[in-house]
Amino acid sequence: MSAPHPTYEQLVDLPAHVQQPVPIAFEDANGHLNVRHYTGIASEGLDESLVGVGIPQMWPAMGHAVFSAEHHLTYLAEMRTGDRLSARVRLLGRSERAAHALVYLLDETHERVSFVMEEIFLHIDMESRKTAPWPDDVAAAMDEKIAEDARLPFEPDLSGSLSLR
Where in 42-165 does DSSP place strands (E)? Predict the structure, then answer.
């Protein structure tokens, strides 16, 4: 059984990424953030967070990339146009060529957790376009971040459907 979702209060002290209001262009016929944009915003938040472990946004120009392999998505509370949001990231683990993370979208307006994206992502050598071992400096920085996030005072709320191989 997975742990309960962390609360807004537990997540708010993690570094904030992609802070923005929900744009009107992202609204659907139901008057809230369209489902496809939750994943896009969470993905941008993950990308921003990876800069801190040595994965710059322009990594493909340097011969490397990060590709998504698997996702598990959980929608907890709707966000509406104009609501302020942010993404918070918890790095869970890595293998030689993959990593496992949780990304939380927080509804800053209503101080609640809106969405959870669990993801497995891969290191890609852009020349061969195949998985490759993480560069040593990135692997070391990821290991530090994983250890830091493991000390958070709440358990990760894993889906149970994703794992590193």
Answer: 64-75, 84-94, 98-107, 112-125, 130-131
Expressed in percent and rounded to 5, the helix, strand and coil fractions of the chain are: 25, 35, 40
Query: What confidence tens digit (pLDDT) does each residue in 95-116 have?
Result: 999 999 999 999 999 999 999 9
User: Could you tell me how far CA 146 lies from the centroid of its own chain?
Assistant: 13
Neighbours of 5 (CB within 10 A): 16
Instruction: Report the alpha-carbon angle 140-41-159, nearest 5.
Output: 65
Residue with the two structure tokens 């852009």: 126
Q: Which tokens is 124 given? A: 């890609």
Determine the Cα–Cα distance for residues 104 and 91; give it in Å rounded to an integer. 11
All structural domains of the chain with their residue ranges: 8-150
Does the domain made of 8-150 have the CATH classification 3.40.50.1000? no
pTM of the model: 0.96
